[in-house]
Specification:
The chain is of the alpha/beta class. The chain contains 8 helices and 9 strands. It comes from Coprobacillus cateniformis.
């Protein structure tokens, strides 16, 4: 089975003073997360879609999906976790409890606030994960990356040709991902910034697929303005 997990568990504090989490804000004529879900619904290879959101917003999420006439036949709204990786694991546990796990089951984890994902990226993630077991979506770093430990002095300037900016989806064989999550020590869990790092620190290969510059994450008010500009430009 091929699952997509839409990560809508964030509170969106960097968006500023808004009445709801950023994934529910309007982009064009519908909420951001609706745009995202619709892209995954278009892909016929995906069997089921999980939307992981804060518990207090689960009813609102379901009502919004119905309001915008989203086909709910393959969609499940579930409770997110306190962290990104906890949310991902909640999704995997839901799959195991409700559908069972098979050796070739994979999951595409994607930010609810990356609504400009396209079908090529989704298909590349599916193909890559079925072949390799773990995929990260990236774009080349166009700017020089400066490393600083204390935020005051340059520690290192890595070669730009070797640097990439991470996007999503991040996609995994579910059994592989769950086994690695469960094997992490408390110290290892504390340094995780995303699921791919769990594999990297355990010495597992994570293959790359090419993202797109416009596959942006809407995090701030500026991002939302840029996203609305992209929506208007497509009309």
């Amino acid at each position: 089975m091929i699952y997509a997990e839409i990560l809508a568990g964030g509170k969106g504090t960097r968006m500023g003073n808004t009445e709801m989490p950023k994934q529910f804000l309007m982009l064009g004529n519908k909420p951001i997360f609706i745009h995202t879900v619709e892209q995954f619904l278009l892909n016929r290879r995906i069997d089921k879609i999980l939307i992981c959101c804060p518990e207090q917003w689960m009813a609102y999420t379901k009502d919004t999906l119905k309001k915008y006439s989203v086909n709910m036949d393959t969609i499940f709204v579930i409770k997110g976790g306190n962290t990104r990786n906890e949310t991902i694991l909640n999704g995997c546990n839901f799959i195991e409890e409700n559908f069972g796990l098979h050796d070739d089951d994979i999951i595409l984890t994607h930010d609810a606030v990356r609504p400009f994902i396209n079908q090529r990226i989704i298909d590349d993630n599916i193909d890559g994960t079925l072949k390799y077991g773990a995929i990260d979506t990236v774009v080349e770093a166009f700017d020089t990356i400066v490393h600083s430990i204390d935020g005051k002095l340059i520690t290192d300037i890595p070669l730009r040709d070797e640097m990439y900016q991470g996007q999503t989806p991040q996609s995994f064989n579910i059994k592989l991902l769950m086994s690695l999550f469960h094997s992490l020590t408390k110290a290892e869990k504390e340094i995780l910034t995303d699921a791919c790092k769990a594999l990297v620190i355990k010495g597992k290969d994570v293959h790359l697929v090419k993202g797109e510059v416009y596959n942006i994450k809407i995090t701030t008010q500026h991002d939302l303005k840029v996203a609305n500009g992209l929506i208007e430009g497509d009309k």
